[in-house]
Design brief:
Elements (H helix, E strand, L loop, with lengths): L2 E7 L2 E8 L7 E8 L5 E3 L7 H11 L7 E3 L5 H4 L2 H7 L4 E5 H11 L5 E3 L4 E3 L4 E6 L10 E5 L4 E5 L11 E2 L4 H11 L8 H9 L5 E4 L4 E3 L2 H14 L3
Helix pairs in contact: 5-7, 6-7
Amino acid sequence: METRTDEIAAGVYRFSTAVTGVGPEPFTFNQFLIDADEPMLFHLGHRGFFPAIAEQAARITPLARIRYLSFGHVEADECGSLNLWLAAAPNAEVVQSRIGCQVSLNDLADRPPRALADGETLDLGGRRLTWLNTPHVPHGWEAGALFDETNRVLFCGDLLTHGGDGPALTEADVAGPACAMEDMFHAMTMAPGTGAVLDRLAALEPSTLAIMHGSSFRGDGAGQLRALADYCAKAGA
């Protein structure tokens, strides 16, 4: 496996590793380093991916500078390497939703995590990121997203997951491929509140969508999120 690095927005670096065997085409696992006075890594990766991701991150900034570690929800691909990162970045603090901390991270993390309230903002020094609770969207009680107010980047986790080892950043439609993948895997929670959560994210009018699986998107991010909401509504959410 090879891990590639690309800058998808000013100071936002995507580390991407493509694997086979997940579906009919390659499937990417992506992490995002937000380089600022107090850098953040969003998505930490599996434990087995840690050496490759850490090597790429160290090319951008010394690991000891990383101040925050975060992820959309608690799964191995999002935070399996959590304690390896805490060891490598001694000043780093884990930040996630209150539910995520109460249910899982207070026990899983080697250092106490910081619980973020819905709408709470972190100042990374020249960049402001807001935590948004997205319970059960795409899945997980503790789920959330981060919005970079400075560059209008939405770190949307597993939302709009699609297959293929495509370009790091695309202006082509990702909602269509994401809906096709959902037809295959049924990974999203189709609940009464799903559409409202997606509409709330769309109202932010992000210009870049930093997607966990698949290419990141540049353009009308709100349109992509609303297309996913329409799909979910037709599916009964």
